[in-house]
Amino acid sequence: MQYRRVGQTNIEISRVILGCGCFGGIGSEPSLFDRAENEEQAHEILDAAVRLGINTFDTADAYGGGRSESYIGTWLKKADEKLRSKVVLSSKTYNPMFTGDSSGLSRGRILERVDGTLQRFGVERLDMYLSHEMDDKTPLEETLTCFDELQRNGRIRAFGASNISCEELERSLLICESRNLNRYEWVQNSMSLLGYQEAEKILQICSKHGLGFTPYSPLAGGWLTGKYQRGLHYESGSRMSLRPDPYEIFVQNQDSIFDGLDSMKKFSKQRFGDVSLAGISLAWLLSDDRITGVIVGPRKPEHLEPVTEALSLHLNETDRVDLAHLFPKL
């Protein structure tokens, strides 16, 4: 496993991060709570991740309505002190945790929600805390000042932003500089071979200002694993069968995507031998030195196998460009 420091912090994370969005539910959707990995299954995945050298777990208070954080917390209680000391915990807030709950990034809500996160993890300080979405109803200054307060008070070590636009990121950096506040130290937006144009723009800003970047959905909801076939017959329990909305653009462009996957199989065999599509897709991201770490969300321990493949590969710039050209620009 490779490790990197996040932004200008002293937090060292594994370059592959375990995404825990399916612990106790499918993401933040209340109707899908209890529709994914239970506590025992979550612990099996955590054990498998640690064996690979993954030290960073990414979740959110709304994942599974708090179940994801709680499952990680019970796993930590069983772990020995040496292992616990190496674990980096990252969580997010914004979304409602149950039907009828509030959302947003107001100071009062953040202070309330971080307390719940710390209790579910069973820790006194959180390593990494992110805004899960941007809140257009709360002044950005209020949100940033609250995160800065949490960091200065030792409740969190650093904070970042997920699903943030280039304009919002640049504005936040200006606010923090002008008010002498701690700043966002990294960004967590989606990025994959099926969607990288917008991420590339924000990655350039991160690189310019020395921020980290930890993309999620590197396998595009399973589309880059080869699990979906022409005709779109979705396996029961897959993301496309439970929560297809985020991937509708792939359905609309399915012919060109499946053509690209066919070409990718040939590319992989010619240049790397017997390597999975998922392994190549992860390696494509990890080969970009500007990327701090990639978040993967396995549903089973064996889904971590492509991580091992990806870590053993280093794609050169020609490989990266050739792969990108196989797919439509979405």
From TrEMBL:
<protein>
    <recommendedName>
        <fullName>NADP-dependent oxidoreductase domain-containing protein</fullName>
    </recommendedName>
</protein>
<comment type="similarity">
    <text>Belongs to the aldo/keto reductase family. Aldo/keto reductase 2 subfamily.</text>
</comment>
<dbReference type="InterPro" id="IPR050523">
    <property type="entry name" value="AKR_Detox_Biosynth"/>
</dbReference>
<keyword id="KW-0560">Oxidoreductase</keyword>
<feature type="domain" description="NADP-dependent oxidoreductase">
    <location>
        <begin position="35"/>
        <end position="318"/>
    </location>
</feature>
<dbReference type="Pfam" id="PF00248">
    <property type="entry name" value="Aldo_ket_red"/>
</dbReference>
<dbReference type="InterPro" id="IPR023210">
    <property type="entry name" value="NADP_OxRdtase_dom"/>
</dbReference>
<dbReference type="GO" id="GO:0016491">
    <property type="term" value="F:oxidoreductase activity"/>
</dbReference>
<dbReference type="InterPro" id="IPR036812">
    <property type="entry name" value="NAD(P)_OxRdtase_dom_sf"/>
</dbReference>
